[in-house]
Structures
1.
Amino acid sequence: MKINRVAPWLASALLATTSLAATPAFAADAPAPTTSGAENPDKDIVVTAQRRRENVQNVNIAVTALSGDALVDKKITRAIDLQTAAPGLTISRSGVTDSFNIRGIGLASGSPQVTNGVATYIDGVFQPPIVSNGQFYDMAGAEVLRGPQGTLSGANSTGGAIYLTTQRPKLGETSGYISGNYGNYNNVGVNGAINLPFGEKLAVRASGLFNQHDAWFKDVGPANNQPERLAEIDGRIQALYKSGGFQANVKVEATQRKTGGFALQPINTSTTTNPYVTGRTNTPFTVSFDTPVSNFERSFATVLELKYEFAGGLTLRSLTAYQNKRLAAVSDTDATSLTTRAALAGGNNVRERVYSQEINIISPDTGKFKYVIGGYAQRNKVDLRNWNSSAGNFTTLPHPNTSKLLLGAFGQATYQLTDKLSVDAGLRYSRFEVTGSNAVYSAAPGSTMAMIIGDPPVGATILAPQTGHESDGRATGKIALNYKPDADNLIYAFVARGYKNGGINPPTGTFAPETVMDYEAGWKSTLFNRHLRTQIGAFYMKYNNFQMDVTNPVSGQNGVVNLANSEIKGFEASFQAKINALSIDGGLSYVDSSLSGFTLINKWLVPAASNGFPQCNGSNSARCFDYTGTSVTTSGGSNLYSPKWTWNLAASYRIELPEGVSITPRVGYAYIGSQWAYPTYQTGTDLINARGLWQGSITLDKGTWKGEIYGTNLANKFYVAGQSGRNELYGAPREYGVRVTKKF
């Protein structure tokens, strides 16, 4: 029987279990994929973002924590899927990078000069935004921290932070797993890990992944592309050595991802400024290109963590990392195959190298006074070799080089005033410096690919220099009061400040840092003999110097400016409940944001054919544009990528059978409200509509064997998942299949 004939039966079966199903949030209790919270409801959910293992119910942070098992059960296979389980988090597609935002703060710009305000870490190491959507496997867990994390996570955590943790080697244990899946779109995948001990002090864990699927979209144009096709390989090896109070963990990982390019279509706007709109297919999961498209990503990372714990419990920690990420993408710029117009194409060639070092002094976990002291240094080198072409002839060539340095010193302490009352205080000072070089070029007539990727491009002339320098620094931190009337309740209130660095804005200057002040209160409770856990919080935030890339008429390129200030307020609530075999969890977020008015050049008033042209300034050149009359003044609106409502609900029911066999149906629903993608607030062009997505599974568990039938986007909803320039990108279609896992 062909797998596509199973779809109607699968969808019906999964939807029929709505009242029974889903993944319990108690699966976040243990950071090991071999432990399921559904079978261990009394285990505490542990988080490590504050450099020590802590019960999430005792931490004064709004956080969603998920174990490795919970990530699998909730079908969170990539970072972009976290928004289906963490209220207040939205991740919007924008092409080679994704825009992460929490409570309306994060990244609303496609410029490489703007830093993401939601910092993402893998095994404690900060991740640049490119090459960041690899598939999860052999994971220990994920933590989504909401609100500014300006002390321990540091600068560039104005919206929050995401901590992803892989499984580490285990001493004295031979173990592992192998998991394989097959689904529609010829989705074939396998991943696994093996843990090997070498004596009592050394263990090695090797893990790997292979995954591929056919194109999600059909290209009906002459280029015959395979949009969103995937071929992905990842390999990871870690070694842990532990002797007495000393331990060292080294990790080396390499990733390669190839896709058939991004599925784009012109945003459905006026044909006056964008005549390519007439080339839209207006058919779900169908595009029409006349240019070959592709996307190729590679990354290499190595991480060394050293720890020494003294007899009294004081710990010294060092975390050293190097990352080298590269991507090469080609897109159909006008996203159509209109025969009346020349084929337009654009290429993005990016290399980013990141060197980072963190040092910590961590106090013992006992006593009235606990603290973490540390220092941090990070160097980023970003090289772009981008190009645009028309009818096969190269035109503009943006070739900026950027060097960034971030330094920080921080400390956070907790003092137990009484048995029930404690105070937290944290302070960090960050210093940032960026230097830009190179230029945007105009390609020489008849240039070849070999000519345009040179430095400088052969025969090219300079349109606009990309030189510049900017430095800034800010003090950030947090002060909190924590009241525990008993072991099952925590009431807290705090004030926190976050900061995201400024940058250069070639060729006209610099832009200032963003800052945010957060006033927050919350209550975490464990009720009914640990059958129910709740987390409730409210916040009020003042967000200043919102960074946005807008058209710079001097160069015709996008430049970053500080558009406005914002006021953000709202509340969040989540719960995890388990009654015998039934587990239910959910989360809700309400965010009311108000961005003040501002003036900018409205990209929708600039003809698409003139996109990227510099100001004419009286010149009659065919490659310039007069921007007079294209600026608009808005009265403001909501923060970008900030839906008012996001919520999720999931349930599961474990049915016990003889001989240690169980069947667990699960179902989940996630809702992400409508959000603005561009600050002219035009409903027809700038609004990304709300969406609600169903997913579910039926799992057969027999000890070390597990079989599963799964489905995501069960209603096969066709929806816009983000924007890039004048084009829109889409979410994944319905996927379903089977997965078999063997643990040993």
Note: The first strand starts at residue 46 and ends at 47.
2.
Amino acid sequence: MHSKIFITFNLLWFSLLLNGQQNQYVPNLCSHSQIQKPRKIFSSQLASNAHIARMNQYDVKFYFLDIKLERTSTYISGKVTIKALVKATQLDTFSFELHQNLTIDSVKVNGSLCTITRNQGEVNAMLLSGLAGNTIFDAEIWYKGTPPSGASAAIGNGISSANSQTWGNRITWTLSQPYAAYEWFPCKQILADKADSVWVWVTTDTSNKVGSNGLLQKITPISSTKHRYEWRSIYPIAYYLISVTVGQYVEYNIYAKPAGYQDSILIQNYIYNNPNTLPYFKNEIDKTKNLVELFSDLYGLYPFYQEKYGHCMAPFSGGMEHQTMTTQGFFNFTITAHELGHQWFGDWVTCDNWSDIWLNEGFASYSEFLALQYLPNLGNQSASAWMNDVHNNVMSSPDGSVFVMDTADVPRIFDIRLTYDKGAAILHTLRFIINNDSLFFLSLKNYLQQHAFSTATAYSFKSSIENTTGLNLQTFFDQWYYGEGFPTFEVRWFQVGSQLIMKVTQTSSSIVTPLFITPIEYKIKRQSIGDTIIRVEHTQPIENYIFTINGTITNIQVDPNNWLLNQATVIKDQTLANSQLLDQLECLIYPIPGTKSLHIHLNYSEPTQIKIYDTQGKLIYHDLMNQPHKEISISDWPNGFYVIELQNTKGKTIKKYQKM
């Protein structure tokens, strides 16, 4: 059971439009046990491989939606123009997706009427004459109808219309992730093909406002009862991030001023036109400014700064990170942080396929933690409590990978425990492995810049982080991303004089990942003189350690800062105080990685030659060790890997060491 007051991920499923009945906002009642899981969809309900191949014969450049909508109905009519570039040698058929509930009046390509065939959501428009490769063309689709309700092709519906039970306002809104954009407009539902820009024009009753992507260019009068909202965005956008909300709103605007940016960024909010709604949420909405400024510092300047960020309210219990204007059912600190975090992770850089949804959801979830860590006075709980809740939820079941094997299984794509919580938890672990916050956030910035306004895979993320840090992260991804389960540590310890002896045994909750090779911290609790933390590498099922520790040890805490998903037991064991175990111990080198000094500890007193080489094989340190323990200053050493060679009458020991 996750004890968060509100579930803070992009698609909250409980109370999500069941026969028009929603709970828009229910204070202090929301928990993971109340989430209604989305229905599983099967591969036959996705576009076929043949249809995907036909759609991949062109590259979408521009969407222009010119539609009619009202707040009281999901009925939609209008025209969608798709500008595209032919990628094939020749294009004879223009293929796209549109739900079979919607009637197509006509399709024209470059002004010529096409003959169409339909197979459920798959539409093929035969061209009168083929288009040569590298040709730009315009396709216009006139359509109308009532989109499906309770469709199994997505979480909820692509478009919904309902009343807020709390505030009494009627709203029509879209929510297309992952496969439901085609339920309300003709499109190509392939993540890797972002449109370069989008226009969204909506004609509606003059009592309504319309929220969408980009900047509102103008409101054009159509008649005495109708007007048209004309939104335009110049930024590349994935199909599922195009959105519309229609309702009676009041507009509440604030501005963020990120450090180093000479201008301000508009935060445009469409709030229910109810005299009580804005006063109720105003304080939480105002915190968006602080979050934009924080994430601009941590991740790089808000990527859509030339347009805006903002929110449109809609009656569902959660949020959806529509580009530049999140659709949100209510406001609290972590849900606002999550959806804003998506503007970098999910919108600016989008997962290339739903298997790697971690690149969207894990990072947005971790943005909640960072918001609580860096803005503790604004949050709804402490960062440590948040991470503890996440760990408890992940470890409530013994297995499961963050990587999604079956992308036809929508509940699995958006699994809270694995995609959101474990996704955030392993990012925290990656931060621990890098062990340098400046380098960690520089890595994230570099990744975002390298894939800006495009898509990425987990592999490309891995390569980017490795290039910045110099680390090899194959083990991390094999264990935490593709692997399953979590480790359990049994720590047995005893103190003999100034020596702390520890025997640590690791077991795993899953046979998929039987051993987690990982750094780990132990907090040594001492009487009177205070605690100290030791960081070591755990590379074997059983690890034996000996440390020289001043003071009287009272207990040991495993992973005190919750860097790792793990469970642990700690036992004070007097049987460790015997020479047989001490004789089994090799040298101990710590901390790994180091920053200011490295420690070498031997379990015997014998003169030992120490030689340390850099990665080019150059000898940079040479000394004779006459005592069991030696400390070497490394403050002036360049960051990177080193080889430590220890030699005496017992033989030669070679160890790899990292300085950061």
Note: Residues 1-44 have pLDDT under 50 and may be disordered.
3.
Amino acid sequence: MAHVSSLIAEDIEQYLHAHERKSLLRFITCGSVDDGKSTLIGRMLYESKMLFEDQLAALEADSRKVGTQGGELDFALLVDGLTAEREQGITIDVAYRFFSTDTRKFIVADTPGHEQYTRNMVTGASTAEVAVILIDARRGMLTQTRRHSYLVSLLGIRKVVLAINKLDLMDYSHDVFAGIEADYRRFAGQIGINDIVCIPMSALRGDNITERSANTPWYEGPTLMGYLETVEIDADAHSGPMRMPVQWVNRPNLDFRGFSGRIVGGTVRPGDRVRVLPAGTESTVARIATYDGDLAEAIAGQSVTLTLTGEVDASRGDVLVTAGEPPGVADQFEATVIWMSEEPMLPGRPYLLKIGARTVGATLAAPKYQVDVNTMEHEPARQLHLNEIGVCNLNLDQTVVFEPYSQNRELGGFILIDRISNNTIAAGLLHFALRRSQNIHWQATEVDKLARARLKGHRPAVVWFTGLSGSGKSTIANLVEKKLHALGRHTYMLDGDNVRHGLNKDLGFTEADRVENIRRVAEVAHLMADAGLITLVSFISPFRAERRMARELVGAGEFCEVFVDTPLSVAEQRDPKGLYRKARAGELKNFTGIDSPYEPPEHAEIRIDTARLRADEAAETVVTQLRVMGILDSP
């Protein structure tokens, strides 16, 4: 390295011993475009002596070639690694860098300033404890300053450094600094940020980064590195009750069974009484095991293995907590959702939700409101689009252990995952459990699905017909029902048009309404299967996600997907209702196959090629498949 701690040369063992015991601070730099975030981090890496000789040589060469400082060292190039970033002189992706000083280790996230990359900024801020918000002294507070400050507050970062940068271009004016500080403090008070340190600086020249600058004799506060090295962190996390999500059940041999995870709140000692949630069973901590031996105490932030007295059933996703101060358990919440996908949020669509080590199914209701992050006003919204923030009700298919995000990030923060692509599409913050989640419980009945099925003499099932309008779904489904009725089987048919006359008469044909249409029908089909019926469902149901959701609502072996595969040209030629003609004329919007997509099934139990099979032959194929699945047999 170019230069590091003198202890390395003098006493390497003492250096390593001290380095192991340094605290770690995670912080982000954020602000508007070209406020100097990457330059600041590059300067900090340089000043902390964390660069190798070849890195310095490369920086000098790159500064001459693509730098923006007229041949002088361009510190931003140490962080902006993408070609597009260097060409434009901006940050696009989140860049993480590690460095250390004699007193503390640091992980810094350099986040983009452009509005279109707000989701990247959220990613960087999600694990940070301090935010360094930069403001260009020439421009003062901008819209993106407010946006990023709001997100910092929303994500629970309470300690903020306001770095008023490029003050060298304003002749190090105290009046300029004081005016920007006053403006920011007024705004910050409105969004709940009160712990603010304002530092005048020039990241390029190094003013007030590691040493007090002679150019600002009127400033008496800390340098940036002085503040970062001494700021207190994690004080609240250590003082609360113990929380530890179980990441892994550690069973190396028959004589050892422990529960491994990172403590996300409080302190634990052998002898402490703990509860396993959501099951609610209690036990006592026997040992706190680590690679280096047992501990007498473990605190928030440490990864340990806890062994308990007695046989306790706990698995990945469960949470060990202080028995006398447990967090909540629920399956319905109000939450703030930050949408991070190019595809909009669709109320009612099934997603996966990951909270801690637990992954469950989830659906979102339409937003209660959307937040205009520029004005902080609440605006009506039916969906959320990329980078938008709203407050929604959240429904899960299982209970989860939680605390409000304001109390515990780990038990209150979550991500949403698309079930098809596995992409992360949103981040969220839990506010509270909905009261109805505590008041409504599933009522057990004496007569169950099996008893109803035995009375009918066959197993229950949902036969789901999907395909384009005019493909022949309803015709084939009707013939299947006639054949089953002739065999003495108990059936009911749910047809798309018929359902829209009653249950779904309030829904249109937008993508969001289509999702809700299928969600309701899937729930009805689920209830009919529970009643022991063979339910025939004939809907276009254009999206795989909703068809998968319908499948997962019923028991294994009780769902049969029938893909009525008719080419668009053939379906359009038939056009029994004249819908294609209207869609082509622009009189009918969001029509599947014309201006709204259809996602063909990938693993349907039956594919009906209507170019090869007549309707009666197709119906017989479905009945044969139901025999093979054992649906027509007595349970």
Note: Residues 160 and 196 are 5 Å apart (CA to CA).
4.
Amino acid sequence: MTMRHIMAKSLAPTDGVREYLAAQEKKSLLRFLTCGSVDDGKSTLIGRLLSDTKQIFEDQLAALERDSRKHGTTGDDIDFALLVDGLEAEREQGITIDVAYRFFATPKRKFIVADTPGHEQYTRNMATGASTADLAIVLIDARQGVLRQTRRHSIIASLLGIRHIVLAVNKIDLVGFDQAVFDRIVEDYRQFSRDLGFQTIVPIPMSARYGDNVTGRSDKTEWYSGPTLIEQLETVSVDEAVVELPFRFPVQYVNRPNLDFRGFAGTIASGSVAPGDEVVVAKSGKSSRVKRIVSYGGDLAQAAAGQAVTLVLDDEVEISRGNMLVSPAARPQVADQFAANIVWFDEHALLPGRSYILRTETDQTSATVTDLKYRINVNDFAHEAAKSLEMNEVGICNISTRTPIAFDPFAENRITGAFILIDRISNATVGAGMILHSLRRAENIHWQSLDVGKHVRADMKNQRPAVFWFTGLSGSGKSTIANLFEKKLFATGRHTYILDGDNVRHGLNRDLGFTDADRVENIRRVAEVARLMADAGLIVIVSFISPFSAERRMARELMADGEFIEVFVDTPFEECARRDPKGLYARALNGEIKNFTGVDSPYEAPENPEIHLKTLGKSAEEMVDALEHWLNERDIAEDQYDSGGGI
């Protein structure tokens, strides 16, 4: 026997190891998170669980003892929080900043626990941890009771589909293990959470620091007869029937390495599938059958939720990333308008009418909050009227997407019913959403096919449609230049129309003020009107301050390629204030007018406009000459119409 064979035999798993590994695979898995307010003891509790379930090696324990002397907050005792507060910044500040995930197991169950921050500014991190959890441990400092952040985290847990709560009344030792304190906190929490839809709420008095009622029963709480924390975690019945849900397969990409193979790759979100099963393309309704299930190790006889596979179909159906293969007997909803819960993360408020990027498991499209129905008060769950959502606030919204998406209500499927919102300028994730249901209006409204289109209308006018979008500060000269520009075009026989900011506010937008939310809606309406006018074959001249980059980009994306021409009328603030044609700057600087652009409301200058007019020291006529020169250089004034819709 060679040395290689001897070593291989010695390293091969024994029967006992095989049995142990097989037993571990058969154990159920519980995902849970700890949440609550600052300093309630979340990290300490997880560290205690890891220690008491023998998940810490001797060298780790020695390192923890050293770290406790250096960073700890528990005197001479071991600071178990340091096991999960891994970042140096966390240890220096004594708080949790990021989400820390840890795995541990007991003889009865396996666990993945997420330790989430308690500070309000890290609410987005808490929502991340809650998104995959089955149970939440809501910690409450027995000395403090139910706090605002306790309520906020409980509401977010409810919105994110968590139905099981352990109410951990921690630091019970610091109130003398007083049952009256415990009972009062439990009653306060039950009163607050009665409408949150939790299936179970199990209150436990505990001391994470000393281990009372964590893994072992405390002799200091003889008045308590309920389970210890670990007993509740081991026995709580959570819904693990995701495999029994209708089949959902979000397509991540089309795998076509050669002409002989075409498969659809992705991870099964729910349900199961086998060769021969009928499947339907969610958005088109086209049906086919599964021919093969291809995996890294070869073809499979069946695949279920959580498995990453490639499906090969019998037919050459059209399907791409963002679509779903689904069960024909239980199809998802496909709509471009729906209601949703929103948890807002960004320091810049959510503004109805502003365009964001909406991203689901695999799909992506432009989306707008068309109506903020109400904000949820985290103190009493009351529904409050609101025009925007500030950072860490929660609200119920109606959302409209540029193209339809396939989804299930979040309450039915947490994977296909969730989405995030992304800022179009910064690409930052600004909100998380949970779809409630499609709007009936979306089911009743369909695109009507028309025989006379933009091409025909433009040909009749012997021109190509365009939208010249003039932006700049009040007093920059936008309206004057736009007016002269239209006169020039009109004199050459062009069919034009000006949408001027002041004029539109006398009619279409007379109900809008000058808050950020109203400014966003102002531009959204004007952009839609400009699109309709361009569709009629007109050359549209829009003269609006339009201070926000996001709304100008939204307007651009409404138009066909090359049809939107941004004209930046660049006049310095000091010159605009000196001109002050309407006397508005003087009043704004004196505090008589609020939300005035350039004074106490920002103006986001274009970074790459098609036309940049620097007006200082030049007349309006010279600016129009510069416009004409730009047009002539690019043959924009030519009569021929590009059938692609561009200029």
Note: The domain at 242-326 is CATH 2.40.30.10 (Elongation Factor Tu (Ef-tu); domain 3).
